[in-house]
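Technical appendix A lists one of the benchmark inputs used to test multi-chain prediction within the project. The record comprises two sequence entries:
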Amino acid sequence: MDQILNVLVIGLLLGGIYGLVSIGLNLIFGVIRIINFAQGELVMFGMYGCYWAHVQMGLSPYVSVFIVAPLVGLLGVVIQRVVLQPLQSEPSMQIFATFGLLMMFQNIMLALTGGEAFSVGGSLGTEVISLGDTKVSMVRLITLLATTLITVGLHFFLKRTMLGKAIRAVTQDKRAARVMGIAVERIFLLTFGIGAALAGLAGALLTPIYSITPGIGGNFIMAAFAVVVLGGLGSVWGAYLGGLIVGVVEAFAGFYIDPVLKSAVWFLIFLVVLVVRPAGLLGQVGAEEVGFREQH
Amino acid sequence: MKKSTALAGIALASVVSLVSTANAQTIKIGAINPYSGPLALYGTEVTRGYEIAVDQLNASGGLLGKKVELIRGDATNPQQGIATVEQLVTREKVDLLLGTYVSGISMTASDAAMRYNKLYWETNAVFQTLTERGLPNFIRSGPDGNVFAVTSSKVVRDLIAPALKKDIKDVKVWLESEDSVYGTGVAKAQKQLLTEMGAQVVGVGAHSWKSIDLNDTVLRAKQANPDILIQTGYVPDGNLMLRTIREQGWKPSAILFVGTGDTPETLEAVGASYLEGVLVVGYPRNDIKDSYGPGNKAYLAAYQAKYKKDPIAPQGMAAFSGAQILFESIKAAGSVDPDKVRAAAQKLDKPEGTYASGFGAKFDDKMQNTRASFTASQWQSGAMVTVYPKEAVLPNVTLKPLGRP
């Protein structure tokens, strides 16, 4: 019982990680209606990019993120333009396409690195705030803070700026938006770019925590889907809350029941949400069918 | 004799002599390993051991009067193993097969080799069933998975308990492993052996090696308050576990890793100062006494000369020694025929400490080499130093404190 606070903190911090990885995924799905299976691989690129910057130029990931995240964002724009836009009329093909990208990206990194695990050790990865039995890892705290800031920032961006309103318009009704003079294709490019940049950012913040392997993206993607489904398709706050909930549930299940059952927890959440409230917590009822969510 | 018959006869004779000359020149060995994909690093390392052994063999006259040629066959998964064997046998015309870093690939590849009645000599894969299934063409020179459990239990009894100044009966152990057949199999064997020795196994835990978070695993282990944490898994989970243990401020009296945790991948992840004192059970390294592993330094020198860098992992030297045992068996058999080699190998009786990796050669009736062991090393100042068994340890080596800094 004395571990409750510690497990709660662990769960919240883990939720920050999940939220960060899922936010970009959710944004892309909400606006472009594509499930980007390669989202985990974009995170992976962010990690390798920061590792490379660390080894070659001695930069901390918290510095190189400002270069790496935009670069991954640029890759996202290229993916949308070159791979997904031509497949616009065939949504199921788009899913296969992102899956193909997943495999291509994983194998490119495999070929380049031989599969050896890389790590950015460093002292930043070790700082811990100790409150008795409860340990708060600094890098995870920073990740949670970043996730919170990004969620708030995205919320205001979508609500208050012209560009954000344009994105919401496209989300609500693509054709009407086009009639109103919004360049829908450009919005899609921008959205995928932002979603990819968020993945790159996630990679940068996660670099001090994990050993990087070509397949590491796959480790996050299942949890990310559970988060997106739970939070509500297309809802930015949904991804944030969903992340926290999944993180806390996982932490408690892992500690009090058995760590082996953790991935079962994700699937259980999937099932329960899809049966009870398919739109997710903050998704508009019916959104899972129509595939859009009104931001408020 | 008619002219056409004579011509045909000469043509036939020259073709036959050409073919048999070609056959007479070399013995071809197919080396099956993953050379691409996530395990390419280790697959290549294992084959480098073979290549060094082949170089030395050819320099000293070859095998059965012929040169040996090693032909690589890439297999990254069990299905590909079958295809690769077929290609090596039918197109490259290899005489026998040598492998394998991955147990799953060895299973299918050796089966495929059986269909062509080719010998499959296993140097590295540890899965028990490989020898237990009784495939007639399969011989394993390296240790099997059970030896991981045996060695780690002995390390607890003979090295860690004395260092902690505790009787084995008072030693508390938490067994952690990755959750596939490999990890859980080793953990099960460890539990049995340690319990037989009288140690207290306070808990057994399993986790996915792809886990994003191991806080629950570490907290559960910490709660049971063991003296020793034993972890059997892969690199990503091992690294994450060490980081998590550090974060949670847990300081077990000793940490023992089995199978992985002995490469720069782990050093880079947690740094030399935190890694100090951690023990790893694995394949014998190049810093063992020459009386334990004759020629282990020579292997290191040969590797550095040929590949211009240090060995990546100790699996290569086990492969090297395994290849040498193979060559001896073929020499004794006078043939590459699987049955003849099997019979010859069964007669081998070389004591432990015959080969560079410290192996001997004595095969049981399942053709498992019973004289192949692992060693234990300790991280000291950022380097892996062999500390067990006593016979392998260099004179100037001491055991550093096992606890967390």
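The two ends of chain A are 40 Å apart (CA to CA). Strands of chain A lie at 128-131, 134-137. Comparable benchmark entries are summarised in Table A2.
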